[in-house]
Write a structure and sequence with these properties.
This protein is mainly β. It has three helices and 37 strands. The termini are far apart.
Amino acid sequence: MICKKILLTGLYLFLVGQLPLYAQQPADSFNVKSYGALGDGQTLDTKSFVSTIAACVKAGGGTVYVPNGKFVIGTVQLFSNIHLLLSPGAVLVASPDNNNFLQQKDFGFSGSGASDKLGLLFADHAENVSITGFGAIDGNSQAFMYQDSVQANGDDLSHTRQGKAYLDAPKGNREAPVMWKGDNSRRPGTQIIFHACKKVTVSEITIRNANDWSMDIKESDDVKVLGITIDNDQRVPNSDGVDMYDSKNVIIADCDIRAGDDCIADIGSSNITVTNCNLASRSCGIRIGYNVFNDNDSGNLLFNNIRISGANRGVGIFQRRKGNMTNMLFSNIIIDSRLYPGQWWGHGEPIHISALPGMGYKEVGTISNVRFTNIIAKGEEGIVLIGSKESTLTDITFENVQLTISRGAFTDINAGNFDLRPTNDAKTNLFKHDIPAVYASKVDDLTIKDFKVSWDSSLPGYFTNVLFCEHFNHMVIDGLTAPGGPNAATGEAVVSLHDGSDVSIANLELRPKEGTPAGASKRLLLFKENVTGLVQK
């Protein structure tokens, strides 16, 4: 019996010794409870956190330890050589009083999120700073949002296929963006901001219920975001996952992100790697661009082994002012995109690339050298590639792509439109348009190789061509297997080319399968108008 107890005791001590270090307070760390934090879910603990961090800074840096408990805080600043360690069961909760959150401008920057304020944690010009552990950071979004009130659609709907009836569906309110309480700019801001920082690590933590962006990596270098979970109320507008503005050398890996806006956004940032992530969004799973704050370049972006589900857009690449975007590789990605009600931007496109003048701008930078390989995509509208007279899309490649166009709950009330918001012209913001599987306009050097398309048989007639391409130069199609839209008019060709030059076509399989509507079998397989230099093998 004594031997059995000794064995059990030894086993217990061994197992305890194997617990992650995150479950134990490191020696020589600074415990926030030692500086007065209560963690009772009611008392405002901001001052205690500030005091703990100040003591750690005075000692030359170290670990600030947050034990199990619910700590209500306003804005807390991190500094160089500070490691904020959240133990399992530790939760930092945003104070319900927005007066407890500081202003971004008071620290020399702005533009992080929709609010003018800071959120819970930020670091400014800091180096070697980290936030790790198995605790959580909770934005308390329910305190700042009306849960039963949705945003009114303020866009000009006169150019849509449905006109005033666009999105007129009360049942859709369950998925529409909710309204914030009071002035949008005064709600607590981005949960975590790193501004002008170097050597940053965020790992394992959970961020949830953000009422603005979850994390902003702003003007920073050498950043790793590893194994985190972001779990936001997807009805909350602007509740992005991880945003990168004007940063470089960032790695995001092994993350699960569920956001009410873009899951991962790159604006003016370069040398970015995103891999092994699950993304669920009411906007873009991955967004590159918009350039709403500056004209910086962006490029050398790698996205690999990613699942995007339930997104209003799978991948969106947007150029709306100066600044060039180049060298983007997307590989081994599964995309499931769909239409949503409300003011969410996007239209169920698995992939969207566009370059047009944004609101108030005349000049537009370039988008070039973009590769999509090994993609399985399903969407409720097609792939959209749109350049402009100011900026032609250049060197876009699709290889080994399987695309399925499906019917969804909102197909009848808001499909059959393109969404290019924001642009200078209301006519090109949100407007009626037929839906090919792939639409390309003002594109040079487009390659489509080993590309398969299938359609839901009940789609409306405005789902038309497999490929509609106009105003292009140098296009290669090698291995396109697809019939046209199942209920498109007989006059709609499966592949329709207009106003282009230098085309090479090989290995087309465009005839419909047995059982498709009779009109489909009578369609012209290839139509060309004002096209020169076409070689068909």
